[in-house]
């Protein structure tokens, strides 16, 4: 199934897991073993007291596949909660990217890259006479757009964190689980 | 050592005892010697020394399936653990509760490519329900209790505990099972009441209903099978079982349509195709059951009850999904039917049964056994007679290997009770039957336990005859010897232009002498008139027996829905293959 398949949906899923060895391998193995696709994955401990981590992953597939992914995730033993942020009401999604632009001695490109960075509220976190490293946060689309504009100016390196996401409103994964 | 301090190995023994383990199937090695020491020092748990670790897992599966308890396995690190992998995968596919303890090199050597080290948790992650590496002795008791909890609750499955040798020696404290609560794993067992009400409303309104039930009913315990009987009889509806579900509904009941699927009966498959309401309890729409998905029961409202949400809407979209334990759901369904005073739609149901009777009249399991003395034995006849001659025995358990004989056993042995039938359904593991029978016999010493085998499959775990000898387990191995990997030969005949590539079983042993060399009894039959006497003789011998029943090498197993074909597109017998039915698309399916 190609991503262009009209019945394909993109979903962001947040999972609260026990932070124990192998838990990430279990989640990833579930995707690779069943031929599902992970488009983005972030993981870090969010509840040190109870040693729990949050995994946020973006995936796409047909409705049936998305349901299957959620059911399979819920079945893993060290998993506390599975939440489909795309289905369960409005949510916010953010990603951070570090983008290196090597301008060499092209002054115009240097100025242009700073101008674009300003529009995107990107910060300069490293600067040398012939390069910048920008830090930009936002929804993935915004980052895509920023990268697109930087590319002709001498994009030299790129690191993205993947999506961190959360439901809007009062409730969250950490409470009530 | 102070009083409440114990070694890891002792803690393990105590935990196993507290988990009600009375027998372990295992094989020793360097990385489990402390555990074998602790075993030696006690009498509560019996150890059965298998001859190959795959056999240990299958034996534990046979034990588990025939008792409803968790099967327990003990293997050493490295090759011990890798040898267990096929058995673990088998147990995962068929939802059999197993706890497998594997020794591991000491913690400080893990990752060093130490002698007999392998990444056991890595290797077994995809073939277990869950696994653990225990690095601290104080986590051991808790982990063992958790492992048993995970193995037996929800959809059952195998759990591995990887236990480094230094942890087996280390001193720690024991924790009793009551003190251990699982942090995350709480499977849903009771259905949403409104969903069941809704289901019963649909069921009561059906005109062409069918119950399609699977291994989930067996796994839910004997009470679930009892509730299924009640519900099916109350409604008067027809019932079919999957390969894994045989025995949940009595085969001798007129409402039973036989097994469905690739080698299922004509009436069961056509009823599935033509029904208007399908009630799936504890079955997973396996590809061997559905055939061509796009033509699977196109006009029915589908209700599915399963304890595993991931088994719902996986390959067939259902109209009403209910996550619940099959036993609880069935009992509730019976109650609702009675409380609401539901009645079947009599005229519609009579018409439906009329239709089913016509399909039945095709007698799809017909085979032609020439009865003149000297005639060659049809494998179906051998298995049918085996079933008939053992029918009045109280405790009969049947295991199988994989192939044609397995399908004939499913077709011709009527199971009227659950937990009497053990076969490798999901993985289709040749070599399953003999060790599984061993496990059943260990659990039921006085029962008649028969492994219905093919001559090719039996060679895959033949070494377990030695285990049978050591523990005097009177398992009967009933080989329908057709000199071919019959199922492979059948596919080659029907689907690959009769090119019999590597499916002939050359250089077979003399099974009678083979039996004798293992201290068992070997019997042989080659002519039709010898069948009954040979079976009678086999039953009369209170020792391990191998029956080498020479059968027609050319016989094929029918009915058959070729890979990728629809339920109505069944080959009924040798004379029924006029058209080429298997599409290119179907050929690639297995
Ligand atoms: C471990 C394993 N290897 C290969 C197969 C593929 N396979 C399925 S049936 C079969 C032939 C079995 O032959 P036999 O045991 O003689 O049974 P028959 O079909 O002749 O009754 C084979 C090779 C399998 N199921 N399991
Ligand atoms: Mg054979």
Rg of Cα set of chain A: 19 Å
Mean pLDDT of chain B: 96
In CATH terms, what is the architecture of the largest domain in chain A? Answer: 2-Layer Sandwich
Low-pLDDT runs of 5+ residues of chain A are none
SS elements, strand count of chain B: 20
CATH topology of the largest domain in chain A: Alpha-Beta Plaits
Helix amount of chain A: 25-40%
Number of domains of chain A: 2
Assign the structural class of chain B, choosing from mainly alpha, mainly beta, alpha/beta, alpha+beta, or little secondary structure. Answer: alpha/beta
Record field, number of beta strands of chain A: 9
Largest sheet of chain B: 6 strands, parallel
Present as ligands are:
thiamine diphosphate, magnesium ion
The strand order across the widest sheet of chain B is 3-2-4-5-7-6
Strand content of chain B: 15-25%
Q: How would the global form of chain A be characterised? A: elongated
Radius of gyration of chain B: 25 Å
What gross morphology of chain B would you assign?
Answer: globular
Q: Count the DSSP helices of chain B.
A: 22
In percent terms, what proportion of residues of chain A is strand? 35-45%
Distance between the termini of chain B: 58 Å
């Amino acid at each position: 199934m190609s991503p262009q398949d009209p019945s394909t949906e993109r979903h962001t899923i947040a999972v609260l897991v026990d932070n124990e060895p192998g838990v990430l391998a279990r989640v990833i193995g579930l995707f690779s073993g069943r031929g599902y696709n992970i488009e983005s994955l972030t993981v870090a401990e969010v509840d040190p007291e109870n040693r729990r981590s949050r995994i946020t992953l973006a995936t796409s597939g047909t409705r049936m596949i998305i349901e299957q992914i959620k059911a399979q995730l819920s079945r893993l033993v060290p998993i506390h909660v599975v939440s489909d942020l795309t289905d369960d009401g409005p949510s916010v999604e953010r990603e951070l990217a570090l983008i290196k632009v090597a301008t060499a001695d092209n002054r115009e490109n240097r100025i242009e890259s700073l101008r674009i960075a300003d529009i995107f509220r990107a910060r300069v976190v490293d600067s040398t006479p012939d390069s910048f490293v920008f830090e930009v946060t936002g929804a993935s689309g915004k980052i895509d757009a920023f990268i697109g504009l930087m590319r002709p100016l001498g994009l030299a390196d790129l690191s993205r964190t993947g999506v961190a996401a959360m439901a809007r409103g009062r409730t969250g994964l950490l409470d009530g689980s | 050592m102070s009083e409440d301090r114990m070694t890891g190995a002792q803690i393990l023994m105590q935990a196993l005892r507290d988990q009600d383990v009375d027998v372990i199937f295992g094989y020793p090695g360097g990385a489990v010697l402390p555990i074998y020491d602790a075993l030696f020092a006690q009498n509560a748990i019996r150890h059965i020394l298998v001859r190959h670790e795959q056999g240990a897992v299958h034996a534990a599966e046979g034990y588990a399936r025939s008792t409803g308890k968790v099967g327990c396995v003990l293997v050493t690190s490295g090759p011990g653990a890798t040898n267990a992998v096929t058995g673990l995968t088998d147990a995962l596919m068929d939802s059999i509760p197993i706890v497998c303890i594997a020794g591991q090199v000491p913690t400080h050597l893990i990752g060093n490519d130490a002698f007999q080290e392998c990444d056991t948790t890595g290797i077994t992650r995809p073939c277990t329900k869950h696994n653990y590496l225990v690095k601290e002795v104080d986590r051991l008791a808790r982990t063992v209790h958790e492992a048993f909890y995970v193995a037996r609750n929800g959809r059952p499955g195998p759990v591995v505990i990887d236990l480094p040798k230094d942890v087996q020696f280390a001193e720690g404290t024991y924790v009793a099972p009551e003190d251990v609560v699982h942090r995350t794993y709480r499977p849903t067992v009771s259905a949403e009441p409104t969903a069941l009400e809704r289901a019963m409303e649909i069921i009561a309104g059906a005109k062409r209903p069918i119950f399609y039930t699977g291994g989930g009913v067996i796994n839910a315990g004997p009470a679930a099978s009892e509730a299924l009987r009640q519900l099916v009889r109350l409604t008067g509806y027809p019932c079919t079982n999957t390969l894994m579900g045989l025995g949940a509904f009595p085969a001798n009941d007129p409402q039973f349509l036989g097994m469905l699927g690739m080698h299922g009966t004509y009436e069961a498959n056509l009823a599935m195709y033509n029904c208007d309401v399908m009630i799936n309890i504890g079955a997973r729409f396996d590809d061997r059951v559905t055939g061509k998905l796009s033509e699977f029961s196109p006009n029915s409202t589908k209700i599915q009850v399963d304890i595993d949400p991931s088994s719902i809407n996986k390959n067939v979209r259902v109209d009403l999904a209910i996550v619940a334990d099959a036993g609880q759901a069935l009992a509730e369904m019976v109650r609702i039917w009675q409380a609401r005073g539901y009645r079947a739609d009599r005229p519609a149901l009579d018409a439906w049964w009329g239709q089913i009777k016509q399909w039945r009249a095709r007698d799809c399991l017909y085979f032609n056994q020439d009865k003149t003395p000297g005639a060659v034995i049809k494998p179906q006849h051998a298995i049918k007679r085996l079933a008939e001659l053992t029918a009045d025995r109280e405790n009969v358990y049947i295991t199988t290997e994989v192939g044609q004989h397995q399908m004939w056993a499913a077709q011709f042995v009527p199971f009227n009770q659950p937990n009497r039938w053990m076969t490798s359904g999901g993985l289709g593991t040749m070599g399953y039957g003999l060790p599984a029978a061993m496990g059943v016999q260990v659990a039921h010493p006085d029962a008649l336990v028969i492994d219905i085998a093919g001559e090719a499959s039996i060679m895959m775990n033949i070494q377990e005859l030695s285990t049978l000898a050591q523990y005097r387990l009177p398992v009967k191995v009933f080989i329908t010897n057709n000199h071919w990997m019959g199922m492979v030969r059948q596919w080659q005949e029907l689907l690959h232009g009769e090119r019999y590539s590597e499916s002939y079983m050359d250089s077979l042993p003399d099974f009678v002498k083979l039996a004798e060399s293992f201290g068992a009894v070997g019997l042989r039959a080659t002519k039709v008139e010898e069948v009954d006497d040979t079976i009678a003789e086999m039953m009369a011998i209170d020792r391990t027996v191998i029956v080498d029943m020479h059968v027609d090498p050319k016989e094929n197993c029918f009915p058959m829905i070729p890979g990728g074909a629809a339920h109505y597109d069944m080959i009924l017998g040798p004379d029924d293959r006029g058209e080429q039915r298997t599409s290119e698309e179907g050929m690639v399916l297995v």
